[in-house]
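Hi everyone,

Forwarding the result from last night's run.
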Amino acid sequence: MTEKLEAGLARVENQSLTYSEYLGLDAILGAQHPLADPPHHDEMLFIIQHQIAELWFKLSLHELRAAIDMLRNDQLEPCSKIVARIKVVQQQLFSQWAVLETLTPIEYAQMRHVLGTASGFQSLQYRQFEFAMGNKNKSILEIHGEDSAAGQILGEWLNRPSLYDEFLRHLQRKGHAVPADIVNRDWAEPYESHPGVVKVLKGIYENPQKYWDAYDVCEKLVDLEENFQLWRFRHMKTVERIIGYKKGTGGSSGVSFLRKALDIRFFPELLEVRTEIDA
């Protein structure tokens, strides 16, 4: 028996704004342009996988901007909620590697040539995300061209405080003894661990009832870092599984390059303080 449609359902052709129009589906679903000739079945998977990752990065950057603004305005509770959302987005990014892992080495080898020098290493949004999280690296601007539109966008992120910088500035405004050289530094330089910050965080962790908002943000930042490292690890293992130890299409050393990134820390004192906390 065919189910009868409800009488109140809107007909698409009679609407001033449709689902497809609101979401821009014509542009999104028409944005896949495989290049392999003859066509290769798995190229569509490869394209969509990376397009979806870029959409998640776009949302992550949207949320990071909001979280940073909230920290500037000493609004820790809404910041904590936003950071929790980014954590869930990261889980989506992590899980989707499983889809790409269904691509076997021979399948990828048959279509890899169409990428030319295109590489995820060149992702502008990924680099913005890393800069926002605190992994500052001026040389990355050279990849995009310092005077290009992309280079200028990265330059703005490079020269502004990261999420962690803003959190430490918030703590200093609230009376915590964050060292002056930490809250008044060159934002374009990579952040380096400071024993004075470890001491401040130790006080927060040992008095969670007194500093609950800051304590909660600390733990959510640890979640972000851990999720990012898990994503990096899964990325490395996926590349290893599909291309072994070949060089990356963008000129990187491939797996060995990705393995080095596993040692990069965004919020070093948040891990170091755990050694100092009294039982």
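The two ends are 67 Å apart (CA to CA).

Cheers,
N.
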